[in-house]
Amino acid sequence: MTNYKEILRLQSLGINNTRIAEACGCARSTVISTLQYAATRGLTWDLVRDWSEKEVAEKLLPSVAARQTYKMPDYEHVHREMQKSGVTLNLLWLEYCEQCRSAGDLPYKSTQFNKYYADYAHKTMATMHLEHKPGEVMQVDWAGQTAHIVDTDSGEIIKEYLFVAVLPYSGYSYVEAFHDMGQENWIAAHLNTYRQFGGVTRILTPDNLKTGIMKNTEDELVINRTYQEMAEHYGTAIIPARPRSPKDKAAVEGTVGVISTFILAALRNQQFLSLRELNQAVWDRLYEFNHKPFQKKNGNRASAFEEEKLFLLPLPGHPFELATWRIATVQYNYHISVDTQNYSCPYEYIKQKVDVRMTLSTVEILFEGSRIASHPRLNGRPNQYSTLEAHMPPDHQKYVQWNGERFISWAEKVGTNTTSVIRLFLNRYTIEQQGYKSCMALLKLTDKYPPQRLEAACSKAFSFTASPSLKSIQSILRSGQDKLPEQAAEKPSSASEYGFTRGAEYYDRRTTDAD
Q: Which of 377, 397, 417 is the last residue of a domain?
């Protein structure tokens, strides 16, 4: 036992703390704390000279004094703070130390602080809360066992697959049956889960199935593009379980097993004729599962979820819209063709391969990750065109302000035959705009030839064929064939004029010469 009376005596003699520690066989820190306590209580050697060592120890015993001055943390407050994202025990201990210093109290060391918190958590059955923070993680998977429905037409037994999502903190779960485990149903299951929970967790932990995770190795993680888009839309992070590491998603693995027993086993003798009927039965059993009392603590999963729900991230303003991706090549007409429809993009990307993201309402065109065009999705008859003026080359943009009615109105000023040719050009193509270039070229011929000649050329072209082309009309004008009928009217033609045949006079002259 430390001789505290001797420490005071030696200190009164002016001996330094190191020498006092050596003389009394104790640590230098013990000497310092003893002298600090003595100074606090106004104890000096002259005062305790006649006291016994026991009396001095009772006044100055460091262990007793320490226990009296250590500030016990408010572990109820600590536990509440630990449920918040990013909060650690070390951070709370530092805050606790700062509060103690401000109040003049002596704080516990971090090891004792952590030990007392672990004791508190054990007594309040809060060990699960130590592993998972509320609103932090949602774990998802397909159940190994399947449900079944009966086809009403053939009587065939059809497999239905159960999607399971669980919040590890509260144990609250969502289950839904789907026809298959494809990507469309995989995304739909997540959307339905978020809607049911009324919020989003910060982390999403799936298994390594291909509809979610393309590749997951020690060196590389490749997430399915649509799945990643969904996560970005809802503001959550996808952190998949490590391959062959079921402990990474122990909560959902355990819930899958429990649900297989609690739900599927209970429904094994029932017959369902539709997916909707099956899901209604599943949700009825799921309600009982979530409201089933805990065995070792008060409440149930539903009541624990009410506490956790406050920590979920809010849902976005509109639900995620499932998109499909394609690869297309920009053609020379600066359009891509997807699902028999055509969409324009800037002409600078002609012959480039682009990514196409398609939803029910929108088509987006991306080049090297950057969006270069967006269109409302075309539906209905095939081979429609969605064209933006800004995507056209400069020499094509001048035709944008034109339309069929304007071309016909211009042609009517030339003549009926010209108007008929213009109508033919406009109706020749599935898309009217595709005929604008020919219409413009035809009518611009009036800059070089009189309108009367253009009208005559069109009439001449119709005499050759019921479907004349721009090239044939241009040839008629260049050769002057449009003027031939007028020349014939002024001066009747004869075969001898052109020297094609020899007339009677020729033969009469030959006979005379012979004579």
A: 397
